[in-house]
Amino acid sequence: MAAVERVFQSGWLGMGSVVKEFEDAVADFLGARYVVATSTGTAALHLALDSIGLKPGDEVIVPSITYVATAQAVTATGAVPVFCDVEEDTLNIDLSDAESKITEKTRAIVPVHYRGMPCDMDGLFKLAHDYNLRVVEDAAHAFGSYYRGRRIGSFGDLTCFSFDPVKNVTCGEGGAIALSDAEFMGLLQRKRILGIDRDTWSRYHDKRSWVYDVTTQGYRYHMSNINAAIGLVQLKKYDRLNSRKISIAKVYDEEFAKLKKIELLRTDYDGLSLFIYVVKVREGRDRLMRFLEGEGIGTGIHYIPCHLFSFYGRNRAKLPVAEKIYEQILTLPLYPDMSDEDVERVISAVKKWE
After folding, report:
1. Closest Cα partner for 117 from 280, 265, 325?
2. DSSP string for residues in 26-78
3. Within a 10 A sphere around the Cβ of 144, how many other Cβ atoms?
4. Member of which family (predicted)?
5. Which of 19, 67, 309, 318 lies at a 20 to 30 A Cα distance from 345?
């Protein structure tokens, strides 16, 4: 609250010097060369996809197990999301199936680091190189995760993050794009504020330019100083918050591995920024959800496969793993403020059901 109060006292609530401070802090945290902050994670995805020049009729490969925001960011450009299957043990993108969906119209691929667990980026970048595709990472779950000793966002093409209220680092609402190309960064900065050519640099100094040009199609996707102030405070808490979530997940793993009806996803906790805790229920997932609700324990399903939504029906594909997994996956409570007693109550309830 003190950080937000200082923004109000400054009189500059919109995008300004605090946003620049947040971008620099995120870049330092990730080891990224550049970071462009946005109003939401979905805005970051749309901005990144729009900036690579997608046009109507172009195709973008997207794993079906993801929040619909990933697919909506594609359709917002006029391009067509082509859904591919996922790995059964991680729910990350299945690169073999993704390759089978590539056509002469394919322009990009959007891997989703599900739960925060990084995809096979070496394999993905090879695939992109072989077919001359852009890679726009949906790292909404993976802020802070490492892949082979480097944080997601410190390498690659364009990496998009979310800082919404339930993410491991929140700005209240917000997003960001990490990248290494200075020229492309300039394009993203212009596009996030209505295509205006010089407004970003003025605002970084808490000023506004009244003489400017509009050089490209743009959007009102910039972050405010208020949201950036929240994010700066949250960044300092990341290690503690993530450490607590990891410790809870490991307790869950130890106990749920003993149950016959519960199957664990493959998880490498080394360098992981864990967003959600998901298990597979071999039979009776919906019955378990209702039972836990009766015990006062909330659960969820992350996610309905995107290719099953009516809006994408014209692109309906058979994705057997995604469709099977959808009937099994269950998200259990996982948040840093959970007490040991809360954790034990979840475990005891699941055991009671089994």
Report:
1. 265
2. HHHHHT-SEEEEESSHHHHHHHHHHHTT--TT-EEEEESSS-HHHHHHHHTTT
3. 24
4. Belongs to the DegT/DnrJ/EryC1 family.
5. 67
Which residue is catalytic, options 20, 167, 191, 245? Answer: 167
Q: Diameter of the chain by CA atoms?
A: 68
- H/E stretch holding 81 reads strand 80-84
Q: How would you label 164-180 residue by residue, b for 16+ Cβ within 10 Å and e otherwise?
A: beebbbbbbbbbbbbbe
Render pLDDT for 223-257 as a digit per residue (tens, 0 to 9): 999 999 999 999 999 999 999 999 999 999 999 99
| CA 279/CA 277 separation, integer angstroms | 7
- Rounded to 5 degrees, φ, ψ at 157 are -95, -80
> Is 167 an annotated catalytic residue?
yes
CATH 3.90.1150.10 fits 239-353, yes or no: yes
- Interatomic CA distance for residues 174 and 161, integer angstroms: 9
Residue 210 pLDDT grade (very low, low, confident, very high; cuts 50, 70, 90)? confident
The string of pLDDT tens digits covering residues 122-141 is: 999 999 999 999 999 999 99
Residues of the chain with CATH 3.40.640.10: 2-233
* Cis previous bond, 219, omega within 30: no
pTM for the whole thing?
Answer: 0.94
Tokens for 300, please give them: 């969820």
The C-alpha atoms of residue 19 and residue 17 are separated, in whole angstroms, by 5
C-alpha of 291 from chain center: 30
Report the alpha-carbon distance of residue 141 to residue 40 in Å, rounded.
Answer: 13
Helices 340-353/285-294 angle, 10° precision: 130
2-233 architecture in CATH?
3-Layer(aba) Sandwich (3.40)
The answer to whether 173 and 39 have CB atoms below 8 angstroms apart is yes
* DSSP helix, strand, coil percent of the chain (3-state; round to 5): 40, 15, 40
What are the residue ranges of helices labelled H in 159-283?
182-191, 199-204, 225-256
